[in-house]
Design a protein that fits this description.
Layout lengths: L17 E6 L2 H6 L10 H18 L8 E7 L6 E6 L2 E8 L29 E11 L1 H6 L6 H12 L20 H43 L4 H11 L7 H59 L1 H16 L5 E3 L3 E3 L1
Antiparallel strand pairs: 1-3, 2-3, 4-5, 6-7
Helix pairs in contact: 6-7, 7-8
């Protein structure tokens, strides 16, 4: 501002400087030979040089770079772009145009106020008059370039002077899309990285939980396979290559042996029960041995001294054994066989 001898009416909401970004999509720069982290092709630099010359024509002070604060080509981000900052300096001022009479004097209304000139649409007419010295004023800066239509006019000019020669299409007319500053872009990148890290953390926790479940399942399986430790030792030898068995066959053998082991366990339980019953009967028999020895001595005595009585006793026992069973009496229906 000192170099331009410009004035500045500072307000709470005054604009100090403005920015402009010129770029395209990644595919466009790749067609020009650009590859990230590699040397920038001449075609890309030529494109940005033409864009900078366009910026000087459109927003440079009298077509120069006297109001340009910074113009940098960024190649370290997602897409190459020219980022430019400038102060909106003007050397003309917007002034109201008033109605004049035949004598060239300004006409006034009944209250004595000057009457502003209107166009055919009924809108107030303004003109830009030279200033004694430049001033920094964003509203006048864009007012000179079309006011509310200034941004659209700027994009139209870029398409006609630059874009059309590179086969680019005109952007969406009336679009309210906003570009981000480098700080906003970096912030968005960091937020995306944090979100990605948080997602990886959640995934890692899930993996750890699954691993812990797998370890618990493995430990439980090993506990159940403890009785087969001898077989497992042999299987480990086979896995190390000492035995000509494949891991698949070994796994099948483990399953088969586990099943067979459980079946043998059931048979062992039944055998143990039978052995307990036999032992009980044996104990009963042993307790009757003295009594049977007495009977044995008595039978030997009778057989020696009264064999006829022994034969008679045998016949009586046989007859009783073969005799028909007597009928039994029912409590309600009388006698039945």
């Amino acid at each position: 501002m000192q170099e331009l001898n410009a004035t500045f009416r500072e307000k709470k909401d005054s604009t100090a400087f403005e920015g402009m970004i010129i770029t395209s999509d990644t595919a466009f720069f790749e067609r020009l030979g650009w590859k990230k982290s590699e040397e920038t092709p001449y075609a890309v630099m030529e494109f940005f040089n033409r864009c900078y010359e366009f910026a000087l024509r459109e927003i440079g002070y009298k077509g120069t770079d006297k109001n340009i604060l910074s113009a940098v080509i960024h190649l370290d981000e997602k897409t190459p772009h020219l980022q430019l900052y400038y102060i909106p300096v003007v050397d003309t001022a917007k002034k109201k145009v008033y109605e004049k009479g035949a004598d060239g004097k300004v006409l006034r209304n009944e209250k004595g106020s000057p009457i502003q000139k209107k166009d055919e649409h009924g809108k107030s007419v303004y003109e830009y008059v030279p200033l004694e010295q430049p001033k920094l004023c964003s509203s006048d800066f864009w007012g000179e370039r079309g006011g509310q239509l200034s941004y659209g006019n700027l994009q139209d000019s870029f398409h006609e002077q630059i874009g059309i020669h590179y086969g680019l299409d005109r952007g969406e007319v009336g679009s309210n899309k906003k570009h981000t500053t480098k700080y906003q872009w970096q912030k968005a990148q960091q937020e995306a990285e944090l979100a990605s890290l948080e997602q990886e953390k959640v995934h890692a926790e899930e993996v750890i939980e699954q691993a812990q479940t797998a370890v618990e399942t493995r430990d439980k399986a090993l506990e159940e396979l403890k009785p087969l430790q001898e077989y497992l030792d042999a299987f480990h030898e086979a896995m190390s290559g000492n035995l000509p068995l494949s891991p698949t066959k070994l796994r099948k053998m483990i399953v088969g042996l586990t099943t067979e082991y459980r079946r043998l366990e059931e048979e062992k339980k039944i055998t143990d029960k039978d052995r307990e019953n036999l032992f009980s009967e044996l104990q009963k028999a042993e307790r009757r041995i003295p009594e049977l020895e007495k009977y044995k001595e008595f039978v030997a005595f009778v057989n020696e001294y009264a064999p006829d009585k022994l034969d008679e006793a045998k016949r009586t026992a046989t007859e009783r054994k073969n005799a028909p069973k007597p009928p039994f009496k029912s409590k309600s229906n009388g006698w039945h066989k």
